[in-house]
Amino acid sequence: MLSRVAIYGALCLFGVVYLVPALLVFANAFRSPAEVALNGMIALPQSFSFDNWVRVWTKACVSGTCNGIAPNFYNSLRLVIPATIISTVLGALNGYVLSKWRFRGSELVFGMMLAGVFLPGQITLLPWAWIMGKLGLANNINGLILIHTVQGISFTTLFCRNFYVGLPDEIIKAARIDGAGFWRIFRRIVLPLSGPILAVTVIWQFTSIWNEYLFGMVFTAGDEQPITAALMSVRAGGSSAAVLIGAIPPLLVYLIGGKYFVRGLTQGALK
């Protein structure tokens, strides 16, 4: 009994320590710039106002333009939605082929794609810079969509392939005997069974792309920057509110789909 109390006590202590920075960010989001300048960033709020939220949304200066972070927030939405959808669809197709339509060298192909999971983004900066220049996509959200789609295929392929391996081969064989082809089997049989793993890939890709900083900072500027890069330009008094605004979409995704994410992981995403 005493050991259980000690364990729970230690967990509660670690939880409090973990939550303190988040609570400070939340409190500073409602403090005026004058109060922050007077009392510092680490202090309890003496006032409560939504002025910071309105100001950073409509008037915050980002890269020399003072139109707020709203354009950058919408840039992130324009980026994350198509990149998540395309990379998930391609990952599902790759996983389907590499698990149920194996061909000579398929394991080698899967191994090469798997290598992308372990490839640091910094290594790909120069190749992507060359590609963006050749395609005329520098400082363009469409360029970031291309980057994150390609970068995410290795993860989505890994998740979907490991999930589809657990589907009975007899189902696919029976459908082929009945005359169903590649696409019909995928649409009518595989996709309806893919709910858990598609939830995993969508949540993973959405949060990874939304929170990504490196590519957005290197390949975009000004009005084309996503929210993560724009946050670096927002100063004290409004930075906390801007951070919370930027955190709302991934937080909502986890709150809505968190249980499906855990369910998908336990059904083969990391097998």
Describe this structure in words.
The chain has helices spanning 2-28, 33-39, 51-58, 70-100, 106-114, 125-135, 141-165, 169-177, 182-190, 195-211, 214-219, 227-230, 239-269. It is globular and about 75 Å long. Helix 4 (70-100) packs parallel to helix 7 (141-165). It has 13 helices and no strands. 72% of the residues lie in helices and 0% in strands. With 271 residues, the protein is mostly helical.
Give the gist of this structure.
The protein is mostly helical and 271 residues long. 72% of the residues lie in helices and 0% in strands.
Order of helices and strands: HHHHHHHHHHHHH
Report the biggest beta sheet as strand number plus sense, adding barrel if it closes: none
* Shape by Cα distribution: globular
Query: What portion of residues belong to β-strands?
Result: under 5%
* Class by alpha and beta content: mainly alpha
**Helical fraction:** over 70%
User: Compute the gyration radius: what is it?
Assistant: 23 Å
**Which regions are unreliable across 5 or more consecutive residues at pLDDT < 50?**
none
Intertermini distance: 36 Å
Give the rounded overall mean pLDDT.
Answer: 84
Number of strand segments: 0
Number of helices: 13
